[in-house]
Design brief:
4-stranded antiparallel beta sheet, 33% strand, Urea carboxylase-associated family protein, DUF1989, 14 strands, binds zinc ion, 6-stranded antiparallel beta sheet, single chain, mainly beta
């Protein structure tokens, strides 16, 4: 496995990227427009059957969404990444699945449409990894409230341009980001336009 060097890359609108991070290294995710949702997954680089688990995050922390102090635990209930910075509006969603080909069919899309689920598998494939299923993602910059009656309210994104979150790897890990290609609903903002984001790879000394 080739671990990342320090640097900055643009994550093109609608596409995904897998990063192999050494323990102690960080990635800063910058949202230049503010309203772009990114789906996020993390796997133990030594044993990808251990991964960031939304059901364990909710159980471990007794929360429905993630903020800076939330423990981001795996299927083995140990932190895989630490969110060391969050300048967004917070409340990153843990409840909704990654968008996937079936959702776009439901929405009336004919033929191929990029999705966060297929982006995750495509990005893992680019580094020679394969997963048999799609774990539930952490939906960064995405706001979903639980109403008193238990129904979900997909709120318009609230983060400002330049909002950023930083994750530090707690052990060697593969981090996957999908710049959500959703352009049918307003999850990426009222103008339904997916946008580029920026990933900054930071060695331990430079991290927040
Ligand atoms: Zn998506």
């Amino acid at each position: 496995m080739k671990f990342e060097e320090a640097g900055t890359m643009v994550l093109p609108a609608g596409h995904g990227k897998a990063l192999c991070l050494r323990a102690g290294w960080s990635v800063r995710v910058v949202n230049p427009h503010g309203t772009q949702a990114l789906d996020f997954w993390a796997y133990n680089a030594a044993d990808p059957s251990e991964y960031l688990s939304m059901d364990n995050v909710r159980s471990f922390n007794s929360v429905a969404y993630v903020e800076k102090d939330t423990a981001l635990v795996t299927t083995e209930r140990r932190p895989i990444v630490c969110m060391t910075e969050d300048t967004s509006a917070g409340q990153h969603d843990t409840l909704l699945c990654a968008c996937n080909p079936a959702i776009y069919r439901e929405l009336g899309v004919k033929g191929f449409h990029r999705s966060c689920a297929t982006n995750m598998h495509e990005a893992l494939g680019e580094i020679g990894m394969k997963m048999a299923f799609t774990p539930a993602p952490l939906n960064l910059f995405m706001s979903v409230d639980v109403r008193p009656d238990g129904s979900l309210d997909r709120i318009l994104p609230r983060s400002k341009p330049g909002a950023a979150v930083t994750f530090r790897a707690e052990f060697d890990a593969v981090l996957v980001f999908s710049n959500c290609p959703q352009d049918v609903t307003t999850i990426n903002g009222p103008d339904k336009t997916p946008r580029d984001c920026v990933l900054e790879i930071l060695p331990p000394a430079d991290a927040a």
